[in-house]
Amino acid sequence: MSADLTGRRALVTGGASGIGEAIARAFAGAGAEVTVADLNAEGADRVATEIGGRAWAVDLSDTPALRELTLDVDILVNNAGIQHVSPIEQFDPERFSFMLRLMLEAPFLLIRAALPGMYARGFGRVLNVSSVHGIRASEYKSAYVTAKHGLEGLSKTTALEGGPRGVTSVCIDPGYVRSPLVEKQIADQARSHGIAEEEVLETVLLKDAAIKRLVEPAEVASLALWLAGPDAAMVTGASYTMDGGWSAH
Ligand code: NAD
């Protein structure tokens, strides 16, 4: 999928790694001016330098600092996220609220900061990188599942409010994507179950998938590029899964 994003300004959170990095690269390749926002200042600088964009070193879990923000962007990609796996009764409450700040409150505050400019120009694209866990639950991922389900609701509400003023909002719901986040999850599960990483892939992560491989970050970026481009003007309030059939099971 391709699109011409010449003249568009895009902000990609979590753009220093994995899916966000692939999206930042795809958008820059399509002509957009891209700002790479990430906690990892060095990584953001590296990607921004390579794609001719800007870096913004920011801790998006520090939500009070985002309340007065104004964002002058045409395309906002809410992508930064983390995973934590623990049964609810043992889940650290501090970590739960930290994950909700990063993965739900920060996207709300960034959308809030970007909408006035988008409305003034009569154009805006909000892409929320949710997950299949935004539409399906899994045990031990309470904060992640809760944040992603919330993000789906936020995205739909943004679509309803923004539609009449030229702003679309969608969720991208990947299955398991080959990124540092998932590579760590595979290594952790292999260690805790005492099995090989390939076995974790086959028997846990991809058990319910029709296509037994991880999604590549570039494949998610290709979908994001189409969603940000002119051919997706009527796509809003929707969620796009890319999960090799995992959620169809
Ligand atoms: P990743 O770990 O490769 O990248 C996440 C990026 O977010 C990193 O660069 C990290 O530094 C940044 N980040 C983390 N905390 C931050 C903070 N407080 N402030 C600013 N930036 C911060 O992960 P990924 O797999 O590319 O995941 C990106 C998004 O895709 C996440 O929202 C994740 O939930 C979602 N997702 C991933 C998968 C998958 O299988 N990898 C599947 C579905 C959805």
- What's the end-to-end separation, in Å? 26 Å
Question: What is the ordering of alpha helices and beta strands?
Answer: EHEHEEHEHEHHHE
* Average pLDDT taken over every residue: 97
Described by strand count, sense and barrel closure, the largest sheet is: 7 strands, parallel
Categorize the overall geometry: globular
What Rg is obtained from the alpha carbons, in whole angstroms? 17 Å
Low-confidence stretches: none
Oligomer: single chain
Estimated structural class: alpha/beta
Strand line-up in the sheet with most strands: 3-2-1-4-5-6-7
- Binned, the helix content reads 40-55%
Bound molecules: nicotinamide-adenine-dinucleotide
What's the total number of strands? 7
Task: Bin the strand percentage.
Answer: 5-15%
Number of helices: 7
Describe this structure in words.
The model has no long low-confidence stretch (mean pLDDT 97). The protein has helices spanning 18-29, 41-51, 93-121, 142-162, 180-193, 197-205, 217-228; strands at residues 9-13, 33-38, 54-57, 75-78, 124-129, 167-174, 239-242. The chain is of the alpha/beta class and 249 residues long. It has a 7-stranded parallel sheet, sandwiched between helices. Strand 5, helix 4 and strand 6 (167-174) form a beta-alpha-beta unit. Helix 3 packs parallel to helix 4 and helix 5 (180-193) packs across helix 6. Bound molecules: nicotinamide-adenine-dinucleotide.
